[in-house]
Specification:
The structure holds 2 protein chains of 2 kinds. In chain A, about 20% of the residues lie in helices and about 35% in strands. Chain A contains 6 helices and 11 strands. In chain A, the strands form 3 sheets. Chain A has a 4-stranded mixed beta sheet with strand order 1-7-6-3, with no helix packed on it. Chain A has a 4-stranded mixed beta sheet with strand order 9-8-10-11. In chain A, strand 6 and strand 7 form a beta hairpin. The longest helix of chain A is centred in the first third of the chain and has 12 residues. The radius of gyration of chain A is 39 Å and the shape is rod-shaped. The N terminus of chain A is likely disordered. Chain B is of the alpha/beta class. Chain B is about 25% helix and about 20% strand. Chain B is built from 8 helices and 14 strands. In chain B, the strands form 4 sheets. A 7-stranded parallel beta sheet of chain B has the order 4-5-3-7-8-9-10, sandwiched between helices. In chain B, strand 7, helix 5 and strand 8 form a beta-alpha-beta unit. In chain B, helix 3 packs parallel to helix 6. The longest helix of chain B has 21 residues. The N terminus of chain B is likely disordered. Classes of the chains: A alpha+beta, B alpha/beta. Chains A and B meet through helix 3, strand 9 and strand 11 of A and strand 13 of B.
Amino acid sequence: MRLRHVAPLALLLLTSVFPASLLSAPPDVPGKLPAKVGKPLTFDVRIPPGKKFGFAPGFDRAKCTVVRLYSDDVTTASFLVIPDVAGEFYLTFWTEGEVGFSQTVIVANGSAPPPKDPKLPVDPPAPSTSLYFLLVRPDGPSSPAFTNLIGLPEWETLKAKGHKYKDKTLTEAVNLGVKIPTGTTLPCVVILRPRADGKTSEQLAIAPAPMTGAAILALPELVK
Amino acid sequence: MPPKKAIPKSPAHKPASGEPVHRLPPVFVGRGSEVLPSAEENWGMAIMGVQYLRTITDGAGIKLGVVDTGIDDTHTILAPNFKKAKDYTGSSAGYRDRNGHGSHCSGTVFGSNRAIGVASGADGYHGKGLGDSGSGGNGLMDAIEFCLSEGALVVSNSWGGGSLSADWQRRFREWAERGAWLVFAGGNSGPNTPNADNPGVSEWLINSAALNVNLTPASFSSAGDKLDTSGPGVNIWSARAGGGYVQMSGTSMACPFVAGLLGLFRRALELKGKPIPKVHELRQLLFRSSTDTHTPGDDRRTGPGWITPALLAAYLEDDPLPVV
């Protein structure tokens, strides 16, 4: 037997003696790893003893960062991944010179936080278009006419459009800061609008209380 | 079903020395019916505007009490909401109603049908403090305490006419400071009385006059300086003890209507996260939330007028932001 035929024969003998897994085992890797977008995740890969391994990401690296963290440990390789978007990111590992591979899939959920740019201007809050109709009546019990007025369904129509209404006695209204000029005939309606600061109202107008449904619906026109 | 045995009525309450004795105001019994009346027939529901509060709550989640002659807890419209009752009269019938007045009042407060019960979703409690003949003494106080201890902080009391002792005043004050709203019937002694019935005239209680369907004072409704509001009190349909329905008239009928409305209002305040006023603040609130009737302003027949759910509902809405 010539010498050049020994190596293939030796390999054949070795494979018959040793389990196949030791000879052709890819790196031991975790199968599936949950991750959150924007959050770093580390995991380890067991390297077959005395072997070198390779790996390749099966995704666009602009969507998921993957970095090997080097150390003196020759039996374990550590990786850091940071998904930038939600999705599944496959990493394939193999033992150099051997057939077969193993895979880890990073399953990323969530969404990336919005970018913080302190240079962006803060828009002022939009002025409110909703109005508050304060029906002011004399102190004490309500007159039947006023009770009828407050019960008209058109108030709910205004409410459905985003406005508000409420009845107050004169003293209650004044305590809120409402200005009722002396001599104003009651009941009256005071039209208020919330300010952009969200803390105060401005008084826009005073008018005689509307006594019909049509007059109620026409109230927003008084301050246009 | 086995035939019902006649249960002897308990004798009239014999008071101990100095014990106040109160009784039912004279009540006028009208038509009876085996069929449930409609909401339109029970005029108070429609005219008073109960719907303003019912859009928020039907009373589910609140406990309401009635102190009266007992309750027919098997009645079709009382059984569903009835929770508990207790007798403080020593009646052989226990808490059951052998008079009829208590079942009628209970039906108006928490009857499960919206045509009859103002707070038709509330849990109902009944303290029997009036005997089968319609009178009672210190047991009435125990009956109120029973309702309050069960968590029913709005209690309807369609009785009065006796004295108002210092001890009773003290207890009413204590209950008021615990947050209780105790509603009383003003009395049925007519327009020429010097004052409405005790104990409703106490500052710690809500006293109610009775109105006709045209919102004028009922002819029998007592006059007085201390009337906090008025409610429907003429030809009011409610539960008839033993089954069916019956009309009754009296401030006894106005009182449970007011109590039921205040029960809805209190529950609505809870649901809206609003503070619950104590009784003095509630009386001021009723003053501005009643609709004037009879003579302008606060008068001796109707107080400030009829209790108006639409005006009570205003307290459930947020105020506008302070005006500057």
